[in-house]
Amino acid sequence: MRCPFCNYIESKVIDSRPTDEGTSIRRRRECDNCKNRFTTYEKLEYITLMVVKKDGTRESFDRNKIINGIIKSCEKRPVSIEQIEEIVCSIENTIHKSMIKEISSQKIGELIIDKLKDIDEIAYVRFASVYRQFKDINTFLQELEKILGEKR
C-alpha cells in the first residue's frame, strides 16, 4: 500500500479490525519510510451496480458520491466520519443483498434519508431539502412537522 504522504510503497499493518457492519476490515498502517500513519479499508468486490438517474441515464454506483453528499449535510454537526462510513456500508450491504443490478438514485436517496434521520435530525433535514428539492418554506415546514410528529 503506497503511503499517501511520501508515496513510499512499503508499510506495515499496526492494527486490523472489522468494521461494525463486518463487511470490511479497517487497517491502521505505518509507512516504513516517513513513519506517518494512515488508514486503509479492505472489502469485498461486488458486481458492478448501475444507478438509474432521474433523467433515465445510467452510471456506475460510486460510494464516494454518497459519502460526499452525507458529509455536506453533516457539516458542522457532531457526526463522525466513522458514522458516515457506517451509513454508507449499511446502504451498500442493503443494495448488494437485494441482488439487483440496477437501482434508482431516488431509492438510494431514501436509504440515506432513513439512516440520517436516526443519527442527526439537522443533517437529515439538510439532505432531504436538497434531495427532495424543497420548493418553498411550506414544503420545508411539512418535513419538519413529520419529524415532530414522529417524536410524539
TrEMBL record:
Family: Belongs to the NrdR family.
PANTHER family in the cross-refs: TRANSCRIPTIONAL REPRESSOR NRDR (PTHR30455:SF2)
ZnF endpoints (unnamed): 3-34
Residue ranges of domain ATP-cone in the record: 49-139
GO molecular function, one term: DNA binding
Domain of life: Bacteria
Keywords: ATP-binding, DNA-binding, Metal-binding, Nucleotide-binding, Repressor, Transcription, Transcription regulation, Zinc, Zinc-finger
Organism field: Alkalithermobacter paradoxus
Keyword Cell inner membrane listed: no
Entry note: cofactor: Binds 1 zinc ion.
Protein name: Transcriptional repressor NrdR
Entry keyword annotation includes Metal-binding: yes
InterPro entries: ATP-cone_dom, NrdR-like_N, RNR_NrdR-like
Gene Ontology BP term (one): negative regulation of DNA-templated transcription
The protein's role, per its UniProt record: Negatively regulates transcription of bacterial ribonucleotide reductase nrd genes and operons by binding to NrdR-boxes.
Needed cofactors: Zn(2+)
NCBIfam families per UniProt: transcriptional regulator NrdR
